[in-house]
Specification:
It comes from Undibacter mobilis. The protein is of the alpha/beta class. Helix content is about 35%, strand content about 25%. The chain has nine helices and eleven strands. The structure holds adenosine-5'-triphosphate.
Length: about 230
């Protein structure tokens, strides 16, 4: 899988927020995406998933233009968004949540990630099958949201600050799981984070955005040689 953004311009109404954002992401790679509040991180993810129109530039998935496709068609192609605030069904049990999304995403045939695969990948979630999602801890809810995104044929998961509200040890545990599962399944991820050190631990690439423009886009190794804070 290759997800490529070429000179993306996108925003709200007539107003452009993103100023020619370009990046490339391949199978199993994690892209850590940093920037101060209001810099354009969420706007980038919204343009990738199709919540706002791409005004200029191109978005390609394995060479296919997807920037004019509706959200549903991008979801069907395996681009998934985990919005800030989690995106779970608070009143449903873990089992029912998983079953509903599995039914929607796992039509018979094909090599899809189903409910048993998700429980095998996330054994601690399997133990919570009968718990009500809204009553889980923040970390457990975030794991459930990640599990829901994995059902079907995910290729690129867009994670919007998954660490919000989590204790530091739970952040490390969640990020460890994301790294392990993305690597094992060959699923890529774009990770918006303010917890920079934790995100750097699991990243392959780093991007920093400032006022809608990318001011750094390089490998983790390159990012480690610079003072990241100087780019904010
Ligand atoms: N729905 C909207 N309508 C109009 N302008 C918006 C909308 N959402 C965001 N913006 C503006 O777009 C710019 C970029 O916002 P964006 O949410 O992408 O920033 P961000 O980097 O994700 O910040 P944060 O870390 O606070 O989430 C900001 O100037 C913001 O005010």
């Amino acid at each position: 899988m290759t997800l490529e953004a070429r000179d993306l311009v996108a925003g709200y109404g007539d107003k452009a927020i993103l100023d020619k954002v370009s990046f490339t992401l391949k199978d199993g790679e994690i892209l850590a995406f940093f920037g101060h509040n209001g810099a354009g991180k969420s706007t980038t993810l919204k343009a990738v998933i199709g919540l706002i129109p791409v005004q200029e530039g191109e978005l390609l998935l394995d060479g296919e233009r997807i920037d004019k496709l509706p959200i549903g068609a991008r979801l069907d192609r395996g681009i998934k968004l985990l919005p800030e605030g989690r995106g779970i069904f608070p009143d449903l049990s873990v089992k029912d949540s998983i079953d509903i999304v599995a039914q929607r995403n796992c039509t018979p045939g094909g090599s899809k990630i189903g409910r048993d695969d998700v429980y095998a990948l996330l054994p601690n979630l399997a133990k919570l099958r009968n718990s009500v999602a809204g009553e889980l801890s923040g970390g457990q809810q975030q794991i459930l949201a990640f599990a829901l995104a994995l059902l079907g044929s995910p290729r690129c998961i867009l994670l919007e600050e998954p660490s919000v509200g989590l204790q530091p040890d739970l952040v490390e545990e969640l990020f460890g799981k994301i790294r392990e599962i993305c690597g094992r399944l060959g699923v890529s991820a774009i990770l918006i984070e303010h917890k920079i050190a934790s995100a750097m631990n699991i990243a392959d690439h780093v991007m920093i955005i400032n006022s809608g423009r990318l001011v750094f886009n390089g490998s983790k190794a390159d990012a480690e040689t610079i003072n990241l804070w100087g780019y904010f």
